[in-house]
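Thought: the user wants the 3D structure for the chain below. I'll pass the sequence to the structure tool as-is, report back what it returns, then summarize two notable features.
Action: structure_tool
Action Input:
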Amino acid sequence: MLCRMNSLLQTRQRPKLLQSTPYTSTARPAGLACRCRAANNAADKDMKPVDLGEAGIVRLPSPVGTLHVVKLPFPLGMVLEETDPGTTTVVNVTNRGHAEQANVQVGDILLCCSAASRQMAYPAWQLALGGGGTPTIKRVPMLTAGKPFSQVSAAIKSNQDLADSRVDLVFERKGLEVSQIEGQLNGESDKNSGSVFSPQLFE
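Observation:
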């Protein structure tokens, strides 16, 4: 009997060991991570933060010329037109108007303007009493580059819905001459262009 048991133990197969699979890390290589951080830092350097006060801080691409930030009440005292698709430019400044007093010049390109945004506010005390939200109007920044003039003029007009009906405007000044602006317009005014204080836009 003992001999038979020994024979069975000797012939029993040993369990096979599972082969260990090499661990593959999904972590980003150190060199690639450094390059990504460098790219992000370079992108941040190309952006310029502009503080618009109540409207908040907006980050704009570094301009070719200089930035000119103004806060204007209505009427603005200037004429904006779409000189190129998606480019809104000052083509006329009213004598002794608000724009002239703020040193806005013909040829300034509009990069950003403030707009009124309707939002819902949820105060904690109101929610505790089982109430809902309260509609509010908040001033927010809107980038104007690449947007049609109709959208830009509507955003400027919306500031009249705020208690403090002024407009925050950020211009880029490249030093274009009046003749260059007139050349871009070719003596014609686009149907979507017009004065930002004209009655047909604000009534």
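Final Answer: Structure generated. Residues 60-174 form a domain with the Pdz3 Domain fold (CATH 2.30.42.10). Helices lie at 2-11, 30-45, 98-101, 124-128, 149-158, 178-185, 199-202.
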